[in-house]
Amino acid sequence: MATRITNIEEYKAAYKTSLETPEQFWDEIAGEFVWKKKYDKVLEWNFLEPDVKWFINGKLNITENCLDRHLATKGNQNAIIWEPNETGHQARTITYKELHEQVCIFANALKKLGAKKGDRICIYMPMVPELAIAVLACARIGAIHNVVFGGFSYKSLADRIQDADCTIVITADGAYRGAKDIPLKAVVDEALETCPSIEKVIVLKRTNIEYNTVQGRDILWEDAIKDCSSDCAAEVMDSEDMLFILYTSGSTGKPKGVVHTTGGYMVYADYSFRNVFQYDDGEIYWCTADVGWITGHTYLIYGPLLAGATTLMFEGIPTYPDAGRFWNIIDKHKVNIFYTAPTAIRSLEAMGLDFVKPYKLDSLRVLGSVGEPINKEAWEWYHLNIGKEKCPIVDTWWQTETGGILISPLAGITKTKPSFATLPLPGIRPVLVDEAGKILEGNNVEGRLCIEFPWPSMIRTTYGNHERCRQNYFDTFKNLYFTGDGCKRDEDGYYRITGRVDDVIKVSGHLLGTAEIENAINEHPDIVESAVVGFPHDIKGWGIYAFVICENERKDEHNLKLEILATVSKYMGSIAKPDKIQIVKGLPKTRSGKIMRRILRKIAENDLANLGDTSTLLDPAVVEDIKAGAIH
Ligand code: PRX
After folding, report:
1. Quick one: which of 96, 105, 48 has its CA closest to 475?
2. Model pLDDT, residue 614
3. How far is CA 630 from CA 538, 547, 582, 584, in A?
């Protein structure tokens, strides 16, 4: 396609055009899609309210662009290759024609159950093709999908259903993840005790886990699709109609429902996918992310399908049945492009090369990394042992809120540098600012990363609370979108993300709010107060360190800690379980009662020499107590 960049000169030219004439630039790219009615205008925006609109008054349906558009040329090509959890079980392949049919059938099933345009539908499923079918079926009928990661607890699920006021949940009896069977339906049942908006629950049978059926509410997937036609006209959507809500953690309060709309998201998902990965027709592409995260939305489902690619979906985990599973799948399905997270790379590196050696890995052409900074050592290991020094690595920086990759090398085109996300994609204007918001010009500077101009797939609002969106992203620095990340720009103008500058932690690539974890810990009846900070962790990037104050002294500290872990799993999910729990008598607070996390962070990092000034604390003695009991 015309809009795929093929060399660095073209990148520079495209970048220049995108700055000088952004509307023309995006108009040309958007012209490659099927619009039911062409937009009147490309862009209207201000970052004050914020109010951002792309492809104004355009009418379309994203599934026509993901599916129908490819039927004539790629109908018999695999759209999805699905690799199950168990090595002995048969992989499944679904062609574009079959996927189109199944999406239409399920879309009709949703309609039969009363779903209509604008309804919010929660999807809480294992990594099976029906998950992709469910997502696309929602989009087909204009329902807004709200996918919740299958590892979240009933409480997190309930919060997300309530906040989005969903009417339907699509789930499965259970999920296979490695050696574990996870009872998804039981979690849904518990969540729904506090979710009166839910009218129907569609249950896919995946495992043999027994579950409870609520008459009149629950319906099996196979019953729901019975007699449904494979003909389902795509709902007419406005460019700015909501496509999905995806919840992400913030530094305060409950997770925010990030809203993405139809037209801009579609254009950017496709453009960024094709350019960053340099996808060639016929290649097999594999993104290991769960669809419960933005990476799974944009680069497992939408981006690849928009580009007519074959996307691989894996149900299991990298270490089951052993730490060679990823490499086994790459050889088995002849994967050309492989996109994963630094945590996975580091954990597989730690298992040793014996798990890599049996595999050829010679189909690989491009490697990707996402979700957290990739350290030099992991980058080198990935480059040498997986890419055999011939595959470019694209270190892709982006966020749930950005909808797509904003800063990344273009595979094989941009010269890479370990641990650098390198250069912005065309249309993306990053700036670094100091704490006061002054823009830092030139190279060799470090500051807070902001974006000064809209891009098509950017967040439009936080569901049900626009003010929260404004405050979170557009209020810190006037007229800029603030990412929450620290960043350096080096002598070549390359960007290197240094990590979060707010109270969220990236644990194994998952964004977790410290306040959210504290709230979960505080649900334990014996805990009066807690403070959570991150500490550098060799495998996970960041680990969770919790300082907790217990109401009554407990002699069985070990049991108390186990109970706290269970409480966090119950209220948030096991991904949020602290790695270290220290029981303390008090927390370092200022006279106004604010916890000085800076001090706790230094203690957690074992950087005791740099605690800084503690004289302004209400009770400086607590610091000595905490230091004495610190876990290292
Ligand atoms: O801190 C950055 C980190 O992940 C954050 C966004 O997290 P989330 O919304 O969960 O989306 C993750 C998948 C896109 C960012 O603010 N991050 C993401 N990619 C990178 C990264 N940090 C460094 N390098 C990256 N390539």
Report:
1. 48
2. 86
3. 19, 9, 7, 9
Q: What are phi and psi of 204, to 5 degrees?
A: -85, 135
- Using most ligand atoms within 8 A of CB, pick from 298, 400, 497 the residue to mutate for ligand 1: 497
Ligand 1 pocket (Cβ < 6 Å) reads 248, 294-295, 370-373, 395-400, 421, 483-485, 497, 500, 506, 511
Tokens of 339: 């996109």
Alpha carbons 405 and 319: distance in angstroms, whole number: 27
Question: Helices 22-30 & 8-20, crossing angle to 10 degrees?
Answer: 120
Distance CA 619, CA 615 (A): 9
Distance in angstroms (rounded) separating the CA atoms of residues 477 and 438: 9
| The pairing of beta strand 168-172 with beta strand 200-204 | parallel
Contacts of 607 (CB under 8 A, 6+ apart): none
- Which residue is associated with the tokens 């709902």? 235
- Pick the residue whose CA is nearest to atom 26 on ligand 1: 397
H/E stretch holding 44 = strand 41-46
CB atoms within 10 A of CB 240: 19
**DSSP character at residue 19:** H
Q: What is the pLDDT of residues 377-392, one digit of tens each?
A: 999 999 999 999 999 9
Q: What is the pLDDT of residue 17?
A: 98
* Cβ contacts of 605 within 8 Å, gap of 6 or more: 535, 536
Q: What is the mean pLDDT of the chain?
A: 97
Task: List the domains of the chain with CATH numbers.
Answer: 8-317+396-487 (3.40.50.12780), 508-628 (3.30.300.30)
DSSP H stretches of helix in 382-465: none
